[in-house]
Amino acid sequence: MIQLHIIVSGKVQGVGYRYFSQMKAVQYGVTGWAKNLADNSVEIVAVGSKDQLDPFVEELRIGNPFSKISDMEITESEVTEQFNSFTIKY
Asked: Is residue 18 flagged as an active site residue?
């Protein structure tokens, strides 16, 4: 299992991006969470296998029809926490 810490910048708040990321996580069997940050970016922690995370990250890069992704910072690390699902944090 791999854990990714992802910061997504661009037009990603107020456009359903966290919900979109949750739907894609469910689709690919990825667990973790997404939350808005004060600088208008979205922070995502995603846990899964490489086969699950690669297509998930590609979907995040494309975004939903209302979002516009300008940058993604992705850091891979050891799994520090086990998640049962993918949730939206507030």
From this structure: yes
